């Protein structure tokens, strides 16, 4: 019986008191706080050599974190560069849906100043200097005298369109027909008596 009492007294002496438990909790809390403080990084303490190659990925960079001032002067966006080059290549190959050398719909297709003084019944044909969007050939614009004050203008490579002619000098009037099959007719007559007349100079614009 006495042995049992001794054992009970010994166990009570080994059991930690509430004060001891509180002291241990406070100690562990203090140690934990110290450990957390030592794990925090100081500002500007991470250098480039501390970052593993490939560690900073796109997903790790916040939206808007990298701004234009951070780029090097010669930095380029690959996607933007490729897109611009691709667009330029397409523009070089086609302009407004047409290949180089083709006329654009609605654009000026031809313009010229025609002097009919050299055209006669014996010499009814001539090459007209001027602009032809469909051809750079020396004879891209030609004129043929059909009769007095009546001319056929041929535009190489321009099958259809609209032409506008200007007044052919003092007291003279001109009119141009629609372009069909690369040709159009121009008529020149006197304003006073409406008689067809040769030897006049007129401007001609085709669309």
Summarize the structure.
Helices cover 25% and strands 25% of the residues. The protein has three helices and eleven strands; from the N terminus they run αααβββββββββββ. The chain has helices at residues 2-14, 18-39, 78-93; strands at 110-115, 125-127, 130-132, 141-147, 150-155, 160-161, 163-165, 172-176, 179-180, 183-190, 201-206.
Describe the structure.
- The protein is α+β, with helices and mostly antiparallel strands and 207 residues long.
- 25% of the residues lie in helices and 25% in strands.
- It has helices spanning 2-14, 18-39, 78-93; strands spanning 110-115, 125-127, 130-132, 141-147, 150-155, 160-161, 163-165, 172-176, 179-180, 183-190, 201-206.
- It has a 5-stranded antiparallel beta sheet with strand order 2-4-5-10-8, with no helix packed on it. The chain has a 4-stranded antiparallel beta sheet with strand order 3-1-11-7, with no helix packed on it. Strands 6-9 form a two-stranded antiparallel sheet.
- A hairpin with a 2-residue loop joins strand 4 and strand 5 (150-155).
- The mean pLDDT is 78.
């Amino acid at each position: 019986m006495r042995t049992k009492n001794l054992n009970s007294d010994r166990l009570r002496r080994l059991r930690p008191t509430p004060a001891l438990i509180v002291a241990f909790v406070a100690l562990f809390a203090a140690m934990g706080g110290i450990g957390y403080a030592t794990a925090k990084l100081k500002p500007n303490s991470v250098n480039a050599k501390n970052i593993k190659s490939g560690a900073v990925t796109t997903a790790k960079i916040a939206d808007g974190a990298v701004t234009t001032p951070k780029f090097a002067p010669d930095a380029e966006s690959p996607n933007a560069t490729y897109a611009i080059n691709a667009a330029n290549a397409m523009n070089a190959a086609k302009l407004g849906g047409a290949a180089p050398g083709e006329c654009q719909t609605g654009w000026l297709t031809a313009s010229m100043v025609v002097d009919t003084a050299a055209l006669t019944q014996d010499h009814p044909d001539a090459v007209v200097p001027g602009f032809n969007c469909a051809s750079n050939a020396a004879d891209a614009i030609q004129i043929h005298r059909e009769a007095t004050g009546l001319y056929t203008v041929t535009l190489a490579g321009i099958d259809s369109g609209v032409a506008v002619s200007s007044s052919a000098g003092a007291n003279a009037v001109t009119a141009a027909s629609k372009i069909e099959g690369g040709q159009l007719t121009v008529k020149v007559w006197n304003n006073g008596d409406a008689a067809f007349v040769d030897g006049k100079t007129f401007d001609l614009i085709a669309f």
